[in-house]
Amino acid sequence: MSRVFPDLADISGEAERRVEHPNFDKAMLAFCRGLADFHSVALTRRAGIVDTVTWAVALLVLYLDEHAPESAHARRLVAICAEGQLAGATAVRNAIALLRQGGMLVSDEPVTPGPAHRLRPTAALIETMQDNLSIRFSALEPVIAWPKAPAEWARTPGVLSGFVRGNVEAYRREHHILFEPLPEVRIFMDRHCGYHIFMEILSHLEITRLGASGVVSLSDVSDKFAVSRAHIRKLLRAAADRNWLRYELGGQVTIGAQSLARYRLWFGHEFTWIYRVAGSDFSANQSNKMASSVDHQQIAAEDVQPGQRGVGSALRRDTDEGCESAQGEVGEK
Question: Which residues are 106's β-sheet partners?
Fold first, then answer.
């Protein structure tokens, strides 16, 4: 067992085994459709979770609010994102502004001039992230048996906390990047909405033993994520230039058998990771142990306005209340 949560041992080996499941492709396509829909303009523009930067900032605020509340402010978020080469200061501050506009974050007014404004997640952010987990769990149900029905498990005390903690701490402590050995995935990750666009495209392709192919409407994808068709074409051409797929005018996308095997392996990593941070008894027990170590007197002394309690307090409260009835059963970027 590795010294960090989650266990980082043999993730690739487990991913390879998951790909062999007879229902893997079904789960992969459902996963792509579900998360592409979740990150579409129709759903997330209202909440502010529009790309990988706002998603990462939301996770970090959730984590800091629970484990290091004094660090849950813009300067610390900028420093963390710069350290991980995730985003620059302007992008992080824009992400914070979008999340505040969407009602996902609130900011404390400092008692005295000078101190950084503490950011707190709202109940709406908790619900939004639990919805995201429910989508993931539902898609993976053909290949992973969850302890409860997907929607119920996503809202089980401690599960969201484990999902958040696993994603943040694996990188912060071990610099673990799940997609590091897969440049054909990172090329999409590094561009605005790129990963969600890739999942949307893949979900429309027909998979055969020769690979995957289909015609994709760039206009539909453009509308779905509020990006230009030129942006989508650049994504596809960048991948095509490296022979990871073929893109032809008219929207024809073809992924050869070898490249499809690599993308399958990536989603095998995704599925393995989700299970380790949010699906196993280990993740549940570790999350409960972490929650029980919090200084509850400090929490009680926090000056929180009605309706503005942070998710850390909510996650700790939910976990504590659920420990006796669900010890060993409940516990994520």
Answer: 120
